Amino acid sequence: MASKTQSAQRKARIEEMRRAERARERRNRIITITASAVVVGALVAGGAYLLNKESEQKEQKEAAAKAPVTDEKSWDAKKLGRNHVTENVSYPMTPPVGGDHNQVWMNCEGDVYKDPIPNVNAVHSLEHGAVWVTYNEKAADDDVKKLGERVEKTPYSLMSPVKEQSGALMLSAWGKQVTVDSATDPRVEQFFTKYVQGPQTPEPGAACTGGMGQQ
Questions:
Q1: Is the pLDDT of residue 3 over 80?
Q2: Locations of Basic and acidic residues compositional bias (predicted)?
Q3: Is the model's pLDDT at 133 over the cut of 90?
Q4: Considering the entire predicted model, what is its pTM?
Q5: In sequence order, which ranges of the chain are alpha helices (DSSP H)?
C-alpha cells in the first residue's frame, strides 16, 4: 500500500514538473515573440524614417537645383570658347567661367591649392563640371578654412586664391558665378548642389583626376 502511495506521489510530482516546464516554455515563447515583434517594429520604423529622411533630402536638393541662386551672374555657355590652346588667354571675367583653355585640366577631385593656379587649366576643370572656389586677401581665415574643408569632401571641385578677383569669396562653374558673404552663406550649398556636374557642364563625366596638380 505504501509503495502504491509513493508511486502515485512520484507521478504527481513528475506531472507537476511537466506542467511547470510547459508553462515556462509558453512564457518563453511569448517573450520571444514579443521581443521579435518589438525588434521588427523598430527596424520597420527605423527603415521608414531613413527612407523618409532620404526622400526629404532628395527633394530639398532638387528644389535647390531648380531655384535661382541670388545675385548669380550667368554667361551664355554656347558663346564661351572651348578650343584647346597653348598660350595664355585673356578672359573677360575674373575668375574666368569658361572660354578657350589648355588641353590639360587642373585636378579637381576635391583639390585645395594654396597658391594661385593657371586660369587656362582651371577653366578646363570647369568644362568637366567642377565648381571652383576662389578667395583673396580680404577673406576671413575661418571662411577659407571651412570652404577648404567643404571642397575636400566634394569630388568635382577645387579651390585656390585669386588675388585680382573683386569679391572676397567667389564660386564659379561653367558660365556661372556668385560672390558669397561667408562659408556659411546658404548660396554655397546651393551652388554646389546645382553646379557640381550640373546641367551647365559641357563634358559631363569627364575626369577630374589625371590632370595637372600643384607641386
A1: no
A2: 12-24
A3: yes
A4: 0.73
A5: 2-66, 119-127, 141-152, 186-195
Phi, psi angle pair for 79, to nearest 5°: -95, 0
Under 8 Å between Cβ of 69 and 187: yes
For residues 46 and 146, what is the distance between their CA atoms, to the nearest angstrom?
32
**Closest CA relative to residue 204, chosen from 101, 108, 126, 103:** 126
CA dihedral for 194, 195, 200, 205, sign (positive or negative): negative
What is the Cα–Cα distance from 158 to 34, expressed in whole angstroms? 54
Contact (Cβ atoms closer than 8 angstroms) between residue 173 and residue 126: yes
Q: C-alpha grid cell for residue 52?
A: 523618409
pLDDT (0 to 100) of residue 53: 57
102 in Cβ contact with 121 (< 8 Å): yes
165-183 pLDDT per residue, tens: 999 999 999 999 999 999 9
For 144, how many CA atoms within 13 A lie in the half-sphere containing its CB?
15
91 vs 107: CA distance, rounded Å: 21
